[in-house]
Amino acid sequence: MTKKQIKNICCIGAGYVGGPTMAVMAQKCPHIKVNVVDMNEQRIADWNDSDLNKLPIYEPGLAEVVDEARGRNLFFSTSIEKAIDEAEVIFISVNTPTKTYGVGKGMAADLKYIELCARQIASVAKDDKIIVEKSTLPVRTAEAIKTILDSTGKGVQFDILSSPEFLAEGTAIQDLTRPDRFLIGGEQSQSGEEAVQALVDVYSNWVPRENIVTTRVWSSELSKLTANAFLAQRVSSINAISALCEKTGADVDEVANAIGKDSRIGAKFLKSSIGFGGSCFQKDILNLVYLCRHFNLPEVAYYWEQVIKMNDYQKHRFAKMIIDSLFNTVSGKKIAFLGWAFKKDTNDSRESAAIYVADELLQDRAEIHVYDPKVTAEHIYADLEYLQEHRVGQYVEQGEKMSMEEIRNLVTVHSSAYEAMKAAHAIAILTEWDEFKTYNWQQVYNDMLKPAFVFDGRNIAPKEEMNEIGFEVYSVGRGK
Ligand code: NAD
Ligand code: UDX
User: Fold this and answer.
1) Residue from 10, 245, 280, 292 carrying the catalytic annotation
2) What confidence tens digit (pLDDT) does each residue in 82-119 have?
3) Whose CA is nearest to atom 1 of ligand 2?
4) β pairing state of 453-456 and 367-371
5) Model pTM?
6) 12 and 92 housed in the same domain
7) Surface-to-core class of residue 163, CB atoms within 10 Å of its CB (0-12 exposed, 13-18 middle, 19+ buried)
């Protein structure tokens, strides 16, 4: 195989990373055939749907990219073995969730899907291949993958690269087309360096060379966990300060703006919120903590664990603010939830703070009426069901398991925000969707029970206008 002229790429895993990443790669490299494969038949059918509104992932700009490349050099299928066989480079973009069983339960990354991919590749491959870890993995996973691949005895040469993905949901297309950097970790051998160069050549089709960083494999794997830990740490730091702001009368947005002007600190990731969510931050920090414990570094583990603890506290604080303000009980009260996604511009709700806030209110038997522009009712109930099954997390553990029947009686999902808010005792803003800023608040107020409470977990509501109308507005880091 000439590693320098890649013509066929396969990606295993058509999720939030595999789908957008490969769509952009196919768009930017029309000379390369890109096969994205997944064992989830429905997901693949959705990627192939002629109605672009039915793509399994909502991401601004994604439909246009898929429309351009799909059927030209971008293909979605369940024929995993065929795609592996044809490819010179195989990206592994499968999920690596936190383990929910056995050794490392609740902390370590579950690598069973990665291992399955390695075994599938080992059984199918007849010629040399470059394997790229795109999933976020613990340090030294490449070694485990290599061990499985090298055990085939077929004399096939596998080069393992780590090229973790840094896209954020909601801005994935922008992050992929103009990345701050693409990272590639490779082995320091001739064949390892050739493999790195082959991937550099692919990325160079649209990414300036100076934005492609190459490192050793372990540095690359650890850089991904570290980047997420640093980003999450900033959110937990500003959220810790938000609690102090509420006590002292300082305004957290003013504090964030003032400190963010310091170029050493920078303005990004200083937005106080109800706590970070998403499939990555918590999972990757837990994984980092687990690794530190494994390498007998308890102080380091403890340090990073606090980022998660502060995040749990922030979600709890918000739920408590609602209950305390509503005269110490939300039982039988209608609370409208604006937003369920873990951030705006995505239909993803994995680890969304909304789930945890809902759980604390449900423990007190609130009636929750949810509106989210992109998350489906099916997903909302699935999130609540998953939480009931596992009930992990320092505040979740204090509550009781509820039946799904009870939850379905208490939680209603609406397709109209105004319907969700009608006759409500309170509105809680959980996601910063832009459309929430455009509502007719006078109309909302007229239709609500009085006093009409608003709990703004994202600091996006027009507080002064709302106060004038007559709302009682509480917001994170700004108080009442
Ligand atoms: P996801 O759950 O959306 O997608 C993973 C897909 O892999 C699923 O569709 C699943 O069916 C498929 N899959 C699993 N095992 C398979 C197998 N053996 N064969 C074929 N298909 C298989 O997950 P995601 O959000 O895309 O995350 C994937 C990885 O990327 C994770 O390691 C994650 O930590 C990392 N990551 C995610 C993001 C993000 O924003 N979501 C960003 C950067 C990195
Ligand atoms: C994150 C990383 O940003 C990305 O580089 C990595 O590849 C995957 O994990 P993602 O989880 O998609 O991306 O979204 P991100 O924008 O990082 O937001 C994560 C959470 O933090 C969201 O719940 C968001 O609302 C919250 N957040 C973010 C804040 O509360 N305040 C901020 O200032 C920024």
Assistant:
1) 280
2) 999 999 999 999 999 999 899 999 999 999 999 999 99
3) 168
4) unpaired
5) 0.97
6) yes
7) buried
